[in-house]
Amino acid sequence: MSEIPWSLYDQLIDNIPDTIIVRDCIVGLHWVVICSSGTGLAMTIIDNERSTTFTGSIVGSKLKRIAELAKSWNNIEASIGVAAINSYYNSIEIIEQNWGKLTYPGHNDNVFDEMMPELTNRNVAVIGHFPGLESVSKISNVSILERNPQRGDYPDPACEYILPAQDYVFITGVTFTNKTLPRLLTLSKNAKCILVGPSVPLAPVLLSKGVFVLAGTIVMDELVVVQNIKEGGDRSIFNNGARMIRFRKESVAGI
To answer: What pTM was computed for the model?
Structure first.
């Protein structure tokens, strides 16, 4: 690709003020949460590396320093780094600075259902096996790519062959954590890309990188979300203080 893959990460990190301090860090079974000027989430990715050398030094550190962990190849550290990035960009204050006044706190309906009229008779690829794809499969030619494929899914190396021919590509925000997002966006340059999930930074710069829709998460009630994550919460966070929200490339208002 013509652009250095790290440039996306560097742009997001560089725009975080040096003055913001991490107030709390929780690494839960399903989500990492970082509390700073705002509250940021990222999916917890655990592989063979189950520890971090930064334990004990995250709270009280500058948010920008912790956000740099998004570039780590240790997936727990990277999850912490992405949550740190999101604690800045996905705070309501920064969202309203970047996108305009929110008229309501978001919505928790399915992004696939929201975009159904646009997907009819289209080639649609989905990176990550999301729930609720059955309805899309009835009206579209759907290809699901998954690192741990289920029956009917394609393994993730198939993206090199499948993505260039798609009309729409839905990409899980976890790809930002595992570093595959820059390549996936390059392969999907002919498609409308929708970046989906709590790990998605709601940052306008992503729209200049080939993203058509950002579908991420804001935390409305930090205390409730943190308690839910401490107790092993998964998608239950969306009924306990977290809300989905979406922004389109052609508009600065939520959809």
So the answer is: 0.91
